């Protein structure tokens, strides 16, 4: 019989701690599209931020049928190259009908048909488009011009805003002397006189997400309301009206009760006087 020290247990193989999906799963910017010409569909932020801009763009000098806003819509800018286009993340046009061809919805924005260029363009930085959005790409003469050149020199869009969701930094570019000049408002709010409103950075909750957002404000510096906020304000006002009506009803009921108590007291007093042989009537 062989004796000796008991065998030591074999330790389990070491494994790395589990990694989050953010670390392991590719994003839409990491993998090529099945269509090599497809620039990629918007991610969730690229949907929510333009939607907030759409909801709060309420220029007081224009009724709702005389300005147009769009997100991720092709803008065609060259009559002699009708297939060339840029696709801003969000843009606004002042003085253009909201409708196209007898109240139909647009499939694109063709500047030589509309005769009105966009007033304001917002681009949201992403890994695939950052250099293009910031004017750092170059094109050959036989290629379509860069986005920066189209916005600045061809369409001459007065305001170009670039916002990074990664750094929460916003660049305000204003067209002056036919070129963009970056301005640095102290409160990160840019007033747009022709529209009668301003655009700035707002920290708050939108569609369940708490972060910094681009949002429009009025001439009093008040952030213009979203559809959800307007609905909530109407609900609160309805509730306040209901409470006021209930308070009025209670006050009227209390006044009626006091009047009834006074009437009963007067009747008791009159009965007591009659019992004493005194006529209570003068």
UniProtKB/TrEMBL annotation:
Question: InterPro entries annotated for this entry?
Answer: Nuclease_put_TT1808, Uma2
Q: Where is this region: Disordered?
A: 1-40, 231-266
What CDD domains does the record point to?
Answer: DUF820-like
Q: Where is the composition biased (Pro residues)?
A: 8-18
Q: What is this protein called?
A: Putative restriction endonuclease domain-containing protein
Can you tell which superkingdom this protein's organism belongs to? Bacteria
The protein's organism comes out as Candidatus Entotheonella gemina
Q: What Pfam families does the entry give?
A: Uma2 (PF05685)
Which residue intervals define the domain Putative restriction endonuclease in the entry? 63-201
């Amino acid at each position: 019989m062989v004796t000796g020290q008991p065998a030591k247990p074999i330790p389990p193989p070491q494994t790395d701690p589990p990694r989050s999906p953010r670390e392991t799963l590719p994003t839409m910017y990491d993998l090529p599209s099945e269509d090599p010409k497809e620039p990629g569909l918007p991610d969730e932020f690229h949907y929510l931020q333009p939607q907030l801009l759409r909801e709060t763009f309420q220029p007081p000098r224009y009724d709702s049928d005389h300005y147009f806003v769009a997100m991720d819509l092709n803008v065609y800018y060259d009559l002699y190259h009708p297939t060339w286009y840029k696709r801003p993340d969000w843009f606004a046009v002042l003085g253009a009908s909201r409708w196209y061809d007898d109240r139909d919805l647009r499939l694109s924005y063709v500047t030589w048909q509309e005769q009105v260029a966009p007033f304001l363009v917002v681009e949201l930085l992403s890994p695939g488009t950052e250099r293009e959005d910031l004017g750092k790409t170059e094109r050959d003469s036989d290629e379509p011009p860069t986005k920066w050149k189209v916005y600045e020199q061809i369409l001459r869009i007065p305001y170009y805003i670039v916002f990074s969701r990664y750094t929460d930094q916003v660049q305000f570019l204003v067209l002056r002397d036919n070129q963009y000049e970056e301005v640095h408002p102290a409160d990160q709010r840019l007033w747009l006189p022709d529209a009668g409103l301003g655009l700035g950075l707002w920290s708050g909750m939108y569609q369940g997400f708490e972060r910094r957002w681009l949002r429009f404000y009025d001439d009093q510096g008040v952030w213009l309301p979203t559809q959800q906020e307007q609905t909530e304000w109407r609900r609160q006002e309805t509730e306040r009206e209901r409470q006021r009506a209930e308070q009025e009803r209670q006050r009227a009921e209390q006044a009626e009760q006091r009047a009834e108590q006074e009437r009963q007291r007067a009747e008791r007093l009159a009965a007591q006087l009659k019992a004493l042989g005194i006529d209570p009537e003068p």
